[in-house]
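Section 4.2 – Deliverable D4.2 (structural model, holo form)

The reporting period included a commitment to supply a predicted holo structure for the target in complex with fe (ii) ion. Inputs used:
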Amino acid sequence: MPRMLSIPPDQSVAIIADTHANLTALEAVLANIDARGIEHVVHLGDVGGKGPRPREVFELLLERQIPIIYGNWDDLLSRRVQPDFLGDQPLMAEALDYQRNQIGTELQKALTRLPYALELQRFSGVVRLFHASARGLWVRVRENDPLESFYGLFDATELVGTDVELPIGVGYGDIHTTLVKYLRRFPEPTPHMRGKMIFNVGSVGNPLDIPVPSYGILHGSLGLELTLVRVPYDIELECSAAIRSKMPQLEEYLQETRTGMYFPRGAPLPI
Ligand SMILES: [Fe+2]
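Output (structure tokens):
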């Protein structure tokens, strides 16, 4: 059975994702959530990687007792060796070393204990949450992918559980851009899927559409409602922290943080 999270019927839940070691953005987003009086927060993975302060970000999420889902970067940072698919990329290896050293051994172990998926019980059915897809940490579903990929987000797999009910909605992170879709194409491959909601809350620390952190609020008394929120923050404050840290791949991080545009660090590389 997947891990369940029960939210009282009159309460909302904030869904955040992909903080990527950007502490300044996380603090701004949590302040925005707090100002709205929202008590429940879930993080959809990729705590570290890319930015200068993975340990501080992870510690803040743990201190706030925010449930965290396992992301592809959480997987990278909790391993001791470079995965084969990254190939021979010394600069990437250096960046991973920095991230792993910052996180430290104890928190690396804590990363490995994060769940693959969570299910929210609160609305007229369950909402399933994971980092990238039901098929794997590295199986990515982008906005313009074929509709079948979006149907696949509802699959009952070994990773999310094979003995699970069909969710009314699926939320994920990973792609660092927000999206909302309702399955409604006619003729429907599976008519019982009609109207199911798919949402992506974008990224707190490394948004790749505009350089403004995003998150989602799930609420609603009759059914599932979603509000996507943008939280402007002090980008140059985060850039100063990155410069002070002397982290590897500094220029790429500054560029992405300032522009919201992906800067390749070699191929193939994760986001
Ligand atoms: Fe990510």
